[in-house]
Automatic annotation (TrEMBL), chains A, B:
DNA-binding region(s), chain positions: 44-63
Stored Gene3D superfamilies: Tetracycline Repressor, domain 2
Region called Disordered, residue ranges: 1-23
Domain HTH tetR-type: 21-81
SUPFAM superfamilies named among the record's database cross-references: Homeodomain-like
InterPro entries for the chain: Homeodomain-like_sf (IPR009057), HTH-type_TetR-like_transc_reg (IPR050109), HTH_TetR (IPR001647)
Official protein name in the record: TetR family transcriptional regulator
Superkingdom assignment: Bacteria
Length: 206, 206
């Protein structure tokens, strides 16, 4: 009956494509989880497959090597963070609280689970030139997007090199706060640091 | 003849103590080297012993476990960095360049080989509660010392909470700059960020 409804034939294959995409998503999400909670050495295709509830064969069909799994995970994570950040920045309040809201959101990116996962890859890449070559372009693309959006959020369209550098310093501080949060919950201290930084930044921008 | 010279007996044992201390130093220095260049997983007592040119037995006499080797290395590293920083701060220029010089020295600490080595331990500790418990007190002690010395360097004896928080933010930025330097040489960009932040910091302190 459905076949006679005049719909094109291709959508019939869709459920399989959806399943394949869902498997891929589950594997990537499990990779972030394993990286953030068990660290780099535990993050192999077979451990991730088990965590995702996916057979090892199916996992290897999507990601034949650990490198392909890690690269795809970082790629998607950075895209998601960039997408989420651009929506967040669109909803920032106008007025005096805007700079602090923008700094808070930048810091949120660097203190989340996805950053903790990325940190494990980063740290492994420090002693692995092959991995470093794979992740450096992803990291650069993400850093540029974060910088562009934060400049836009706090100062609009501007080429002012002073503003661009202040935003770089802000993102470096956010990265340092992310690192400080890996060994223990640093949220109370972080809140004060963000408030202080935002005040100084707002004054410098005026 | 020496025994009859009237000297006490203990100094005769000194060369052996010196040798033992030198072996310990060589092992700690090799640990920093292996951590920074080959990463956490490579940093075992036997790999470090080989790098140091020390027999495995001698290495295990000093450090029976990997944890004891890593803890001793961080302890000594943080003590050395604190000692070196306190001397550096004593030689800071007076006048308008003082804040930038202090920020530069703080950033130097977080971009050196010792920080890169510590970062590997940090990253491993994120998924290892036992290691985390061992290194957290060392890290806290170091962070407090770095904070105290930087406050002293840029503002002298002061309890001003605003100054204390500005210095915290500065050290968070320094930590973020350290992280940014692990995948590639970030020194050119870092120099600009340090100059920009130092200017803002100096203005905020006045």
């Amino acid at each position: 009956m459905f076949r006679d409804s005049g719909r094109p034939a291709t959508p019939v294959r869709k459920p399989q494509q959806d399943r394949s995409r869902a498997t891929r998503e589950r594997l990537i999400s499990a990779t972030i989880d394993v990286l953030a909670t068990e660290g780099w050495s535990a993050s192999t295709v077979s451990v991730v497959a088990e965590r995702a509830g996916v057979s090892r064969g199916a996992a290897q069909h999507h990601f034949p090597t650990r490198e392909s799994l890690i690269t795809a995970t970082l790629e998607q994570t950075f895209d998601e963070l960039t997408g989420r950040a651009s929506v967040m920045y669109e909803t920032l309040p106008e007025g005096p609280g805007r700079v602090e809201a923008a700094v808070t959101r930048a810091v949120d990116i660097y203190t989340g689970t996805q950053f903790k996962a990325a940190l494990q890859v980063w740290s492994a890449a420090a002693s692995d030139p092959g991995l470093r070559d794979l992740i450096r372009p992803l990291e650069r693309k993400f850093a540029r997007a974060a910088h562009r959006m934060t400049v836009q959020a706090i100062a609009g369209d501007t080429d002012d090199p002073g503003v661009h550098r202040l935003v770089q310093a802000t993102l470096d501080m956010a990265r340092g706060l992310g690192l400080a949060d890996t060994l223990s919950d640093d949220s109370a201290r972080r809140k004060q640091v963000v408030a202080t930084w935002s005040e100084v930044l707002a004054a410098a921008l005026n």
